[in-house]
Amino acid sequence: MKLGKLAVWTKLDHFNSAESALFAQRIEQWGYSALWQPEGFGRNILVQSGWLLANTSKLIVATGIVNIYARDATAMVGAQFGLNEQSRGRFLLGMGVSHAPVVSSMRGHDYGKPVATMRKYLTAMRGQQYQAAQPAEKPLTIIAALGPKMLELASELADGAHPYNVTPDYTAEARAIIGSDKLLCVEQKVILEKDATTARAAGRKQIGTYLALVNYQMNWKRLGFDERDWSGRGSDRLIDSMFAWGTEDTIRERIQQHIDAGADQVCIQPIAPSGDHAQDLAVLEALAPVR
Length: 291
Description:
Blueprint: E1 6-9, H1 17-29, E2 34-37, H2 45-54, E3 60-63, E4 66-67, H3 73-87, E5 91-96, H4 100-106, H5 114-126, E6 141-143, H6 148-157, E7 160-161, H7 168-178, E8 183-191, H8 196-211, H9 214-222, H10 227-230, H11 236-242, E9 243-245, H12 248-260, E10 265-270, H13 281-287
Parallel strand pairs: 1-2, 1-10, 2-3, 3-5, 4-5, 5-6, 7-8, 8-9, 8-10
């Protein structure tokens, strides 16, 4: 699997199946290396990945992230190996422990200690025997990682890390921890909007859910933010750090900062200036590797 420098990260649940296939085909035509999707409470993201892989020819389809509490290690390996065999190696599995409110209150599971739970799960995956036609190459597994201990685990037992809601400074720190031979695929939200008030309002609509999640708060604290930044609707300082907004050149500069800091791939999340959940095709076209 050869990852290009630029990918798209977005949720497709508001599309029907035909529309999601057309979106993936457009991303592929624009030259983006991969299409990353989160898992929520809509489609089964592994089923959706199979659909997108079947409707594209060279695009890598990645999960950012699959919730490990939603399926056991046997089911995860079966999907990972099967999708890679079917697509000739174009499926990239990104997994994570999610967040306590999602796992406990919404899914009804006991939320364990994140690093210990992920270690146990990765070890279980390694012990599985996949008894079907094998993919040509060993499938890759990366994990959602924010804190240093999870990054160390990504280096030890996975093929890399997929950080979310981070800065280029974090990217540099993550690269130092996971080493030079592991994948570092970093999410970055982008808004093609020069007006600060409009751009920040759009950002606040998008980031609101994350502000109350302890995993992100702890990582923001490590990056030098404090409770004043994530309380309420989020400070301008936090919004400006999480969202690359402005002109095309300004956004490209932030993307390059991540690459210079050690990112193998920057996964851009296209936020509409209105803050609505629909993808902003204008910014994706503007940043497209092939136009």
